[in-house]
Amino acid sequence: MAERADYAPTGLREIGAWIASIEEGSPAYEAGLEPGMRILTVNGREIPDIIAWRWETDGGWCELEVLDPSDGLVYEAEMFRDEGQDWGIAFTDVLFDGVRTCVNACTFCFMSMLPKDVRASLVLRDDDFRLSFLQGNFVTLTNVSDEDVRRIIECRLEPMNVSLHAISPDVRRKLIGKHADRGVEVLEQLIEAGIEIHAQIVLCPDLNDGEELDRTLSWIESHPEITSTALVPVGYTKHQKRFTHSYVSDRPASRRVVEQVRPYQARARERYGMTRFQLSDEFYLAAGIEVPPAEDYDGYPQFYDGIGMLRSFLDEVSDCIAHRAGDFSAIASDLAERDAEVILIVGEAAYDVMRAFSVPFHSERIKVQAIKNDYFGGDVNVTGLIVECDLLDQLPEDLSNTAVVLPEVMFNSDMLTLDGGSYGHIVEMIAERGGAALLSVTSPPCLLDAMVGGIGSR
């Protein structure tokens, strides 16, 4: 089971290595550990996070100090395991000492552009190198101590996902703030130690584009330890005054960026057999340029940074057409027999892409509805930032005999949207209008599965 930290929940978290569950029959079970206990030390050492836990418990034996809240006493326990056997412990979080927060004042920080009434957990600005390794979060490295650097290198915590943005000191300070120099200092130490780096550049008009972008890309080009670089356009909301335009609505500017990056991509493919410099899908959509083929994405190392999602989706559509043609026709026939419809919900940016999925049904009963993001405003148009109020305002009032397919990505682990709406309430409101809600991951196979199961069972 993959560990996950979710820093936008409604509940409070307690500091410490709290046990969430114990696998029956496991070494932890045999040692008498139970859910709700807290592990204080391993082999005499405190453990600040899941990384330290894995490091200290790498062998076949370990000694623990465990707090049992039921009686307030601390117990000693020993665990033994066979080679390849798991200890059988799941923790409530991957960070036992709390998340490290950001010390920067980034010009483009999305957290500073949120409405004033959002829940407090949404404005928590994490900048924790451990989450970079564990979950792929991008970090600036500006708050990393010398001891942290030693730990990253000693434990080989790679790849490290680093927000670079620019290389010139004056531009970095303008973008990030007074701690910007520390980030490059640490990055160079990691590169010298051979730590693999995945870099990110949030491209801001008139700040780090143009000549500065060339300087940054050239610097990256000279450091092969940076195996991938994601270029993503700045996003902004109506709740700020710093940005009034971006690449999302500027076709000529987006085309210039695509053309500017191409020589770096070509040289990387020639030298290393991989593209290395990757543009987010938004640039291709805004520029009106076809996305590259799958092989240009180097195995999608930065997929969840919006790099290659469009290409992957389109390829999955083609695969579904080739191997699941029967499902397309069965769903369309079933809808016709029932005189029913399906509405596929997406953000405005994904409308044309989702249309590519709806076309193979050859049915006008499969509709794609793009939700305009009035809650955030600005240039926010992605599916993951759809909120309850916009969704319910824009859905038809009459949803009789209609299945509304909701994207799972618009909800957090508590099944809440960013405006505080809940999945349960949305389901109720859709039902009041005569419809039914289906929840699905936004990928063609999952959408087909949800529609086959959900529509057929109605």
SSE order and pairing:
Elements lengths: L16 E6 L4 H4 L7 E5 L2 E2 L3 H7 L4 E8 L4 E8 L8 E3 L37 H7 L10 H9 L5 E4 L5 H8 L3 H13 L4 E7 L6 H12 L4 E8 L17 H22 L4 E3 L1 H7 L21 H15 L1 H14 L2 E7 L3 H8 L7 E6 L16 H7 L7 E6 L15 H10 L3 E5 L3 H13 L2
Parallel strand pairs: 7-8, 8-9, 9-10, 11-12, 11-13, 13-14
Antiparallel strand pairs: 1-2, 1-6, 2-3, 2-4, 4-5
Question: Which strand-content bin applies to the residues?
Answer: 15-25%
Helix-strand sequence: EHEEHEEEHHEHHEHEHEHHHEHEHEHEH
Briefly note the structural class of the backbone.
alpha/beta
CATH fold field value of the largest domain: pyruvate-formate lyase- activating enzyme
The overall pLDDT, averaged over residues, is 92
Give the biggest beta sheet: 6 strands, antiparallel
Instruction: Give the CATH superfamily of the largest domain.
Output: pyruvate-formate lyase- activating enzyme
**Number of helical segments with 4 or more residues:** 15
The residue ranges in which pLDDT falls below 50 over 5 or more consecutive positions are 1-9
The end-to-end span amounts to 33 Å
Number of DSSP strand runs: 14
Main CATH class of the largest domain: Alpha Beta
